[in-house]
Amino acid sequence: MELPQLKHLYFHAPCFDGAASAALLLRVLRKTGRTPKLHPVGYDVRPWWLHRDLPRASAVVDFLYHPAAEFWADHHLSAFIDARHADDVGADHTASNRLYDPAADSCASLLWSAFERELPIDDSPFQELVAWANKIDAARYESAEEAVFGDAPALRISLSLALDTSGRASVRLAQELGVQSLEQICNLPFVSSPYARIAAMRDAGLERFRFGSQELGGVATFDLSVEGVFFSRYAPFIVYPGARYSLGVLRAKAWTKITAMRNPWMEFQSAPLGEIFSHLGGGGHERVGSAFVRESHRAPEVVQCAPRHKSVHPMS
Q: Which residues have a Cβ under 8 Å from the Cβ of 27 and sit 6 or more positions away?
């Protein structure tokens, strides 16, 4: 694959797979003497993303499609804000500078497959990095307890990003991944400090969830303030291991978010959560989705309607 002369790299943040994808593309570009400027982006930009003028020679990975990007790779069901842009990818997308596979466990694995075949990378740390990106992004944890309390270096790094509201830590992580080992990175202050803070708030978040949630027809529902605590999206399946889905509202001073997830430890065909949440201005994968809500008082109304989707609500 012949890459264009890229000067800017946009990637999903705060997100382990987003940083891993950026790191992998950075490694490829550095082999050709290029080091683009990194731009972390989150789904809060979705309403105006297509109206944003990207600089020339821009790449976008693990994030929404933009027609001005000279290189793009993603695996989200909600990748296309305008469905007509799906035609830009084309049937033979592996021969272009647009890579898309909604069946891929992570964007990092999608990039690894393309570059390993056509532009070999002999750096073994990337093999471990891609394996963890797959596990984290596809929620392939052994248990809900591992997802919430797991202490592996990659899990500590991923958890530390929860406090990265500015994107600076995500940029630093993208620069360090593949250069240092995951164990070395998780001991760096920009990771270890926020991780320690989040770990301290984790138990409080789980306790708050226990008293602010309920299970209705196989769906764990909640409406919680996250001020002063950390809430893991896997917490519902510790409290309600038999729930098929989690669906609820998280509230902070500056934002309100609706989030949903299919139980990763139960076998059944998931509703297309990422596609459903794209209609709310958010996005995600088939098995997980979220969206920020501008009018926070409307969040419960949206949550009450969402379980009526026949493949979300087991009783319909």
A: 121, 123, 126, 178
